[in-house]
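Chain A, query sequence.
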Amino acid sequence: MNSQRRIEKLELEVRILSAQVSKLPVRMKGGGGGGGGQSGRPFVVVSQENDYLVCTDMNDNTINVAKPFMLRRTPFDDEEIAYLDGPTPVSYSYTSASTRTATVDEAEESQRVTPSYYEGEQIFAIPVSTGDTKWMDINTCGRFWARYSV
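Chain A, predicted structure.
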């Protein structure tokens, strides 16, 4: 067998193994003495809503995956939050699922989730019971709200 043919065969084997591995549940270990843990799964982002992501699983089923709590709109939109380490409450007003304005006294700051979710992105989620969703993104990208200039 010539070297080009061997390379093609190996590339095919890698693609087959990658497809099989992506369907396996990922075991998330619990943090501390009791054992346990939860099975995580990969999902592919299709679109973004205020509190969840519309995704597909590896079998192309459509699944709603909850965003991490701090990235959701509903708990914070038009609310005033008194943080434990701040003397002044912050109020939030959302302009989309991933942009908002934070106001402290009279000072305003435009914020957006970074990095942004994108169509076709693979995320990992764990099973939860949160409203209508049964899965929650575990935020492996470390998304957070950050100031930006408009």
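The helical segments are 3-22. The longest helix spans residues 3-22.
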